[in-house]
């Protein structure tokens, strides 16, 4: 029931020079499904990532942070990523950490690299031990079938409750040089700002210095994966990774001030937004794709507060599901978003182009049929003007349906 | 589908000397239902209230605050409360405020009191004009059928999506004098801390000075109505009112330091907790009543943060609905509750008496069947020990079911 999910043609996902992808059916939780992915990166690439803010972060997240820190301190570069689905290796304490390290060691042994050159990722059920023997047994298969054109298979290999694989690819010209970008993402529930049970991997063949890539990954995440919410739950495992292989003819980008950086930044951010929005479009039980845009705030923080209050409200979300213009629920959410000195008399609320509320109440010209017309659409924009300043923020979310409850009530069974 | 909702015998709801209650069928939104309630209070009573923190507070809330402020400045005491269901008179701007004042004026005219001696309350749909003519037309009927024994009818008259009327009553002996307390509440959705679409009215016949009653209403609300959540939405209309008629033989309570105050405070708080918990038991679509108790926090605020993160998580709530001990979702909620320096290695999570998680992971002695046994119950306690200090907080919530979605997708239709 994904919402206006674009058709993805595997043949249109460009290889990125310097990256190969291979998967295995390792039977981590269920048989006969791709559940292990290995992404190999040629020597000389730079890699950067942002991770969940959840204090109960998963063991692989801890290990990723350690290994990336080591690179920043001058250690050897990252050469491989390994992802398993079916088990999050989160809430697993010290034994979970040992298992994550063991995964890296085993892949390193098989690939002839050092353990700290491997980044591990897990997604799935929390609080259960990761079946490390099955994962290790699957690694040779994943390594054996690596290839540069496997982006679509890779997208399938990281799915959990996703109903569709999520991938995007494009080529851009920067300073006359072609740069190729391809990426995959996964996630459908437990999705909220500051990462969610979402994984995103985006590779491109430009060369980017480590500090610049560190800045770029944060810039892109803050405008993409950190702007989506399905249910307000921030996962333990969220990770978004950029891989810059440096194989294109574009000279290396060593400063965030260069025009080439700006061009690459915009291309990466736009693709990250696409990958993030694919997650919302395939949100658990989603029937509507909703953009919440808050304008005229005193600062971005309060705009995001209001946007998330609307985007998280079960009452607002069920009204969207019902196509019911019960728009007072949006006003209520704005009111409790936590802006203590909000002057409700200055707030305006639009549904697409329809001015619903102003001057603390319903717009006198508002007609129920206008609201009804917008609510019936599968893509809806809620626009709120706070009348306090020039800041703005946008998030993307979906409605709350019967299927959301069914999916999450049945997830483990 | 209310959860272990106690059978309420109308005959067991004691009259409170100095209070009469009358209702009308005023056809505010739907025909043939009690939708207007008038509570009359004899001269000499003190009245205090706490109200929603929502910035889009309803017009009647604004008027209540004004009228209570006037009393505190030495004006005449409150003599009547008027409640309508079917329309919240919220998000209605200046016209809504005029309508709320007109309601007070009309009731005052009919009852021979001043408009500022009336407190108005509304609950129902937001953003639609209150049909003031119907409300005014219903007032004579409500005044005509007032009586001291009408607490059960009064509880019925304030219901919206509630499936059952909510009332409680008891008598306590303080310093050898009998004090009688009776109260009603309503609310089923849009329920969150700092009040919700909930109304609570609690009257007793002790005499209490205004400043003491102001303190008491806050004390009781903070330990009852401000500790429940159904869906995390804070309503525009929430109000909790204490009425102290002063008709009992107990000498007036003029200090929060007196033993009589302590006894009354505990009786009022306990009854407020009962009335608040009735709201959760009748929560929209609720099938489980869940107590979330967070202990060993550095302060009460962080304990509440953690408790609400658990209580609001749709993933946790659907797991309870499914009786699925998918308890990693609780760990994830603790992790994203916002305690930046939380040491997850010190956190312990219990489900009733079952120790589920410790030392950052699953308790080695935990067995799935123990978790399953607790999850199948209709009353479940989640206990979290943070290992940071001595503070604690408790909230009450319910699960998230298919019926919640149905009720809120269909509310206006």
Characterization of the model:
- The structure is a homodimer.
- In chain A, a hairpin with a 2-residue loop joins strand 6 and strand 7.
- Chain A has helices at about 60-70, 95-110, 130-145, 150-155, 210-220, 260-280, 300-310, 315-320, 330-335, 370-375, 400-410; strands at about 20-25, 35-40, 45-50, 80-85, 120-125, 165-175, 175-185, 200-205, 230, 240-245, 290-295, 350, 355-360, 360, 380-385, 390-400.
- By secondary structure, the first copy, chain A, is α+β, with helices and mostly antiparallel strands.
- Chain A has 2 domains: about 10-280, 4-Layer Sandwich (L-amino peptidase D-ALA esterase/amidase); about 290-410, Ubiquitin-like (UB roll).
- Mean pLDDT of chain A is about 90; it is low at about 190-195.
- Chain A starts with 18 loop residues before the first strand and ends with a helix.
- Chain A contains 11 helices and 16 strands.
- The longest helix of chain A is centred in the middle third of the chain and has 23 residues, at about 260-280.
- Chains A and B meet through helix 2, helix 8, helix 9, strand 14 and helix 11 of A and helix 2, helix 8, helix 9, strand 14 and helix 11 of B.
Could you give the distance between the termini of chain A? 21 Å
- Helices of chain A, by number, come to 11
Radius of gyration of chain A: 22 Å
**What is the assigned CATH homologous superfamily of the largest domain in chain A?**
L-amino peptidase D-ALA esterase/amidase
Portion in strands of chain A: 15-25%
Quickly give the CATH architecture of the largest domain in chain A.
Answer: 4-Layer Sandwich
User: Outline of chain A, from the CA principal axes?
Assistant: globular
What is the SS-derived class of chain A?
alpha+beta
What's the number of domains of chain A?
2
Order of helices and strands of chain A: EEEHEHEHHEEEHEEHEHHHEEEHEEH
Question: What is the number of E strands of chain A?
Answer: 16
Mean pLDDT of chain A: 91
Q: For this structure, what is the CATH class of the largest domain in chain A?
A: Alpha Beta
Largest beta-sheet details of chain A: 7 strands, mixed
Site (Involved in the stabilization of negative charge on the oxyanion by the formation of the oxyanion hole) (chains A, B): 123-124
Protein name (chains A, B): Arginine biosynthesis bifunctional protein ArgJ
Site (Cleavage) (chains A, B): 196-197
Subcellular location (chains A, B): Cytoplasm
